[in-house]
Structure formats: structure tokens, C-alpha cells
Amino acid sequence: MEFHRQIDPAHSTQEESGDESSSLQTRRHVILSIVAIILFVSSLVGVLRLAVGMQLGPNTPALDYYLTLALTVFSLVLTSIVMSYEARMAERIILTSNFQNRIDQLENRLKYREDMLRLVSDHQPASITIFDRHNRYFFVNEAVAEKLGRPSAELIGQPPIRVLSSELAKKLEIQLAEARASDDPIEVVDRVVDEKGVTRFLMRHYEAVSKLAEMEGCVMLREEDLTNLIVERERREQMLKHVIDTLVAVVDRRDPYASGHSLRVGQLSKVIAEEMGLERVLIEAAEIAGSLMNFGKVLVSRRILTKTSALTPDELQRVRDSILTSADILAIIGFDGPVVPTLRQVLERYDGTGVPEGLKGEDIMVTARIVSAANAFVAFVSPRAHRDGLSFKEALSAMAGEAGKSYDERVLVAMAHFIENRPAKLDWLVANKLT
Q: N or C: at which end does the chain have fewer Cβ atoms within 10 angstroms?
């Protein structure tokens, strides 16, 4: 792990100058100690000479006596000054040594934490990068260095334009600016074609670093390769689509008069859900549930399904029960959304008089309310063995009379709005049938 710090050179210089200062103070202390010893010895010599001179009496020259006395006093004074300065210098050396030991402890602790961060970040499969306030590489883990094909030490301090193509560098700088301006993290999924022409899907998570020392304005980028996940999901969705198409085809062969009914219910359920602004998982659940709600008909006698006269109450009940049977049969399939719960509630009525649990209003899943309305509309406008189909206008009018009873009024409004304004989106919706 490498960090980009603008103060590193100065920090290194300060360490060197600190070592030199400590060495110089030590040399000065030694010199002052020697000087103090010399001055002290000189003072002793002067005192001895004065003592000898006093013993000699009047024969001692006055000049020598006073000169010796002056030098002795000066030596004593100078010795006291030097020893005082030496004591202060010794104290300063001790304080400096203690301070340096504290610095060494803090640096060792910092290095330990950096090594721990290196261990954690370098063992992450995701690429982790931190950019400083000038958009230069501040930190990269091993995954980034390996991906870019350059040692991390060469990346630190470099602007993106010197590492990436001009197009990618410009796009990266725009996303970094957006991350700094946003209060929340930003996630984007980019489709990238590498040099070998292989398409990959990369999820990039941008988050501004909290205002720590030396890191204000920095942005952390976490990049994960979702290619395998997306490819697997698309393969699974494609397989699920084939399964659904096969199941719908089985129902159509059992009931030729209702051929295409399930497909139309699924399509109409999807556009109603979109018209209501539901999230993607619920839109898909409504479409799949609409397409498969009649799958239970495979257990209904073909005689009943192809009967040219009106169904008896018992026969009609068997057909309705088959819808609930669809949920039981399809429960073994692992749908992403609430497909099976939707099928279990599709016979509920908005006023609470439906089956199997008598749910009412908002207690019924919105996807079930959508599929119920879509199924009824397709049934109204589709011809059957025992009757002709209604026009779109007649069907919408008949269903509007059941708003708040059989159907959710908001679902009916969304369906009517789509049919009246965007019928061309579904090829079986013909505009002139509204007349």
C-alpha cells in the first residue's frame, strides 16, 4: 500500500535535521563538560597559588597575587555559568530523547495500522482507489495496480490523464466531481469493452472521504466486476422466459378458444404496472403472473374448456379453482419477484368478497389487483366458444361499473389511460375497437 502525501519530503527532512540536532547537542554537552572540568581545575590551581602566596607573606609580588585572584574568581564564575548551561542542555537532551521516543512509538503505531490496511485492502477482490482533492491517485490497492499494469508506487501522485485514456480520464473526473458535490454515495454500472473486444460490466461506487486530516476533498472509488453476475442473470432470465413460453403454449393447446389469452394478460399487466410507476421487480412479477395465471387449466377437462354453451356454476368454479392451482404448481420455480403470492390473491375482490382469504382493498397485493383487472379486460374483449368479444369501450365501461367492488379504481384508470393513449405499444390493441 502506498499513500501520496505532499508533506513526505519535508517530513523526511525534519527527521534528518532532528537527528543532526540531537547529535550536535550531544557534542556540545561533551565540549561544555570538558570546558567545565578545565575551568574547575584552573580554579583549584588559582586557589592553591593564592594559598601558597599567603604563606610566603610580603615577599609575594602584589601584581601576581591580584592577577591570580582575578583569574581564580573569573574561573569560578565561568565554571558556575558553564555548569548551569550544561545542566539545562542535559535536561533539554533528556526531553528531546523522550520526545523522539514518543514520536517513534507513534510512527510504529501508524506503520502497524498502515500494514493492517494494506493487508485488508490488498486481499479485497474489488479495486479500491482514493483520489485527492486534485484528482491525483492518493491510494491504490494491489487489485488496481494489477489491473492498470503498473506498480502502485508509480501510480501515487499521478493524474488520471497520465494513467488512463483521455476519454476514460475525463469521464472519471466528472464522476469524482459529482461525488464531491453529493451528500450520498454514487453508484454507476458502466459497460466497458476492453482491448480484446470483451464486454464487461463494472459497478463503480464513489464516496467522498470524511474530512480527516490531509484527506479533505478526497474521494474513494470501489470498483467491482459484475460481468459474470449479469451474464448469469441474463442466462437465467432467458431460461425462465423459455419455461414461461413453454407453459403458456401448453395452456393454449389445451384451450384453443383462449389461445393467446395468457400472453395478452401478461403484456397488459406489464404496461399497467409501468403506467402506475411500480418498481421493476413488481412490473416483472405482474407480467409473469399474468402470463401464468391460467396454467392450472391443464388440470381442467378439455370438454369444459372447449364447451360451446355457457358453463354451469360447478364448471365455472372448477375453472376458477384452476387459477389457485396455478400458484401451487408454480411454487417450485424460484421467481425473483412475488409471482406466486400474486397468483394466490388474483381472485380476491377489492370489496373483500373474493377468495380464498377475503382480502380487501390495500391488503391485496397491487400486482394481484393489476392481473385481476388485466385478465378480466382480455376476457371481455376476446371471443369465446359461447359468445362474441366486446369492444374495448364496452369492456372498459363494464369494468368501470365494478370500480371499488371487483377492481381497484386506480388500476382501471391506469389501464384506460394506456389503452386510450398508447394502444400501438401492444399489437393486439387496435385503436378503432374503442368506437
A: C
Q: Has this prediction a pTM greater than 0.85?
A: no
| Each residue's pLDDT tens digit, 403-419 | 999 999 999 999 999 99
Looking at 105, 122, 139, the residue that finishes a domain is: 122
Give the C-alpha separation, 118 to 110, whole Å. 12
Residue 222 and residue 187: Cα distance in Å, rounded? Answer: 9
The identity of residue 83, as a single letter, is: M
The number of folded domains in the chain is 3
| Claim to verify: residue 400 and residue 336 sit in the same structural domain | yes
Whether residues 135 and 75 share a domain: the answer is no
What gap in Å lies between CA 380 and CA 419, rounded to an integer? 14
Span 84-119, pLDDT tens digits: 776 777 777 788 778 888 888 888 877 776 676 666
> Are 41 and 163 contained in the same domain?
no
pLDDT per position as a tens digit, 313-333: 888 888 778 888 888 888 888
Residue span of the structural domain in which 15 resides? 2-122
